[in-house]
Design brief:
Blueprint lengths: L4 E5 L1 H4 L3 H10 L1 H10 L11 H9 L10 E7 L3 H13 L7 E3 L16 E4 L2 H9 L4 E4 L14 E5 L9 H9 L1 H10 L10 H13 L7 E7 L6 H11 L5 E4 L6 H7 L3 E4 L2 H7 L5 E3 L9
Parallel strand pairs: 1-2, 1-4, 2-3, 4-5, 6-7, 6-9, 7-8, 9-10
Antiparallel strand pairs: 5-10
Helix pairs in contact: 2-3, 3-5, 7-8
Length: 297
């Protein structure tokens, strides 16, 4: 097999560790360690990214040889306190065999060594450091929605455009000079949009889709953007130039994205704006991408 899609995920993104994290924050590391050891045979409930991980690992069943997709646990736990996490991985029948337990340190430094294509964590600092090291990364935020995965369900991933798939060059014009200047800039620009932090992950998803096109494809992607006509043209031409396929494109002209994401049934939505993520989290699992002009302060 020529390539492998690698997802790095933190234990708090994969499982619901809110109770033990509360103990850590209020009572300290020793109390946290004792709690995890005392409860290491208590299986953890699914966390925000559990459905995504379950669905993406299921795609390996469509390949006859070795696994095409790998999920790696990247945790701030020690191996000692992390035993509960691995017991939960086994109980939930997740095919995750590789892990790094960093004993309180950030695991982001290992994402490059593992060749991670996407890093998901609940730690803002870890995600920011990974983004700065050119690894597509996002911070999973608590969601108000919980849904069990049904057998055979398609994996659906939604992306914002500017500062996620594309760079923030156009967003900078909008931020500094307003909507009219932004639209004028888009009309006049003949060059393609520059790549954003998630272009490489989208390309890897496209490779999977191309390999699995013979039947019903298990992956569906959507671009959900505040752009509208005529600024949509540059987006379409850029994706065409990259040879990248997006299954659904929603140019919403500034409308709230959350109901559209619910209709798409996104397993995860990536956006650079915190407010958009907070709105969307009421309907679907959402993750903040700390990149671009909106995240400079």
């Amino acid at each position: 097999m020529d390539s492998k899609l690698v997802i790095g995920i933190s234990s708090r993104a994969l499982f619901d560790l809110s109770q033990s994290h509360h103990i850590f924050e209020n009572d300290g590391i020793d109390a946290y360690r004792n709690h995890q050891i005392e409860n290491e045979n208590e299986i953890l409930d699914p966390g925000e990214a559990f459905n995504l991980v379950t669905k993406i690992l299921k795609i390996n069943d469509l390949y006859e040889s070795e696994n095409r997709i790998e999920v790696i646990l990247l945790s701030r736990n020690t191996a000692d306190t992390g035993l509960r996490v691995f017991n939960s991985i086994e109980a939930h029948k997740l095919n995750i065999t590789r892990a790094v337990f960093c004993g309180g340190e950030s695991p982001y430094k290992y994402v490059k060594a593992f060749g991670v294509d996407l890093f998901l964590s609940s730690s803002k600092d870890d995600v920011k450091m990974a983004i700065e090291n050119n690894v597509p990364s996002a911070r999973i935020i608590p969601s108000k929605t919980k849904r069990k995965v049904k057998d055979g369900e398609m994996l659906k991933i939604a992306f914002d455009g500017d500062s996620v798939i594309f760079s923030d060059e156009s967003e900078k014009v909008f931020e500094k000079e307003g909507l009219k200047a932004f639209l004028d800039n888009e009309r006049k620009k003949k060059s393609m949009l520059k790549a954003g932090p998630f272009k490489s992950f989208l390309v890897e998803l496209n490779k999977l889709q191309s390999e699995l096109d013979s039947g019903i494809n298990p992956i569906r992607t959507a671009l959900v953007t505040a752009r509208s006509a005529p600024s949509h043209k540059r987006v379409i031409k850029t994706l065409r130039k990259w040879g990248v396929r997006i299954d659904e494109s929603l140019f919403l002209g500034g409308m709230n994205k959350s109901e559209f994401l619910k209709s798409f049934e996104a397993d995860i939505f990536f956006d650079d704006q915190q407010q958009n993520i907070e709105d969307a989290s009421a309907k679907v699992t959402s993750a903040h991408v700390p990149f671009g002009i909106k995240n400079r302060n």
